Amino acid sequence: MTIKIKKIQRIAVAVKDLDASIEKWKKMFGIEPFIYGIAKKEKYHWCAFELGEGDCTIEFLSPWNDPKGEVLIGKFIRTRGEGIYMITLQTAGTADETVDAMRELGIEPSWGSVAWKDINLNASGDSAEMWQEHYIAPKDANGVLIVLATIKRKLTGVVKPPPEFRLPVAGTKKTKK
């Protein structure tokens, strides 16, 4: 049995300075973040850019209130430097099928499973009714944290943003034409 993948959903990059990194990517690619957030407990803040037609996003994750780099993203940057932190692959099967395939391959899902309801997928307003993640540890994936996401998409509707977030600067959010 193999893990069936639909597409690359997200690439997350650990960066030292969120604002400087946003400006660099604006200049290089002409793209703007469509959402910002703060993970207070995990001590990082983040933003997401839509790539292409909105099928994939790039997220920047940067330490927040972690001057010594002791927690999650800060620790990653302190020990490995800036760079790809994780790749999220959307699975083709159900969450249970994904876990079964992982176990059959001898890979135990790391850190349990996480699920969210009603989340924003891109700047165009596409959303997921349910997003469930299972993790493959870097030791099992050539040094890269792999997130396997089972996504149940919503066809239409506006999604409520996460509880702690910053809206993009006025005029930066794309609208459907």
Task: Give the topology.
Blueprint: E1 5-14, H1 18-29, E2 33-39, E3 44-51, E4 56-63, H2 72-80, E5 83-91, H3 95-104, E6 110-120, E7 127-136, E8 145-154, E9 165-166
Parallel strand pairs: 1-4, 5-8
Antiparallel strand pairs: 1-5, 2-3, 2-9, 3-4, 6-7, 7-8
Please describe the structure with a list of short key phrases separated by commas or semicolons:
2,3-Dihydroxybiphenyl 1,2-Dioxygenase, domain 1, nine-stranded mixed beta sheet, 177 residues, disordered C terminus, alpha+beta
Structure description:
With 177 residues, the chain is α+β, with helices and mostly antiparallel strands. Strands 6-7-8-5-1-4-3-2-9 form a nine-stranded mixed β-sheet. The chain has a single domain (5-165), classed as 2,3-Dihydroxybiphenyl 1,2-Dioxygenase, domain 1, CATH 3.10.180. The radius of gyration is 16 Å and the shape is globular. The N and C termini lie far apart (42 Å). Helices cover 18% and strands 42% of the residues. It has helices at 18-29, 72-80, 95-104, and strands at 5-14, 33-39, 44-51, 56-63, 83-91, 110-120, 127-136, 145-154, 165-166.
Which residues sit in consecutive blocks of at least 5 with pLDDT less than 50?
166-177
CATH class: Alpha Beta
| Helix percent band | 10-25%
Shape: globular
Proper CATH architecture: Roll
- Overall mean pLDDT score? 86
- Percent of residues in beta strands: 35-45%
- The third-level CATH topology is 2,3-Dihydroxybiphenyl 1,2-Dioxygenase, domain 1
In spatial order, strands of the major sheet run: 6-7-8-5-1-4-3-2-9
Which superfamily, in CATH terms, is the homologous superfamily? 2,3-Dihydroxybiphenyl 1,2-Dioxygenase, domain 1
Number of domains: 1
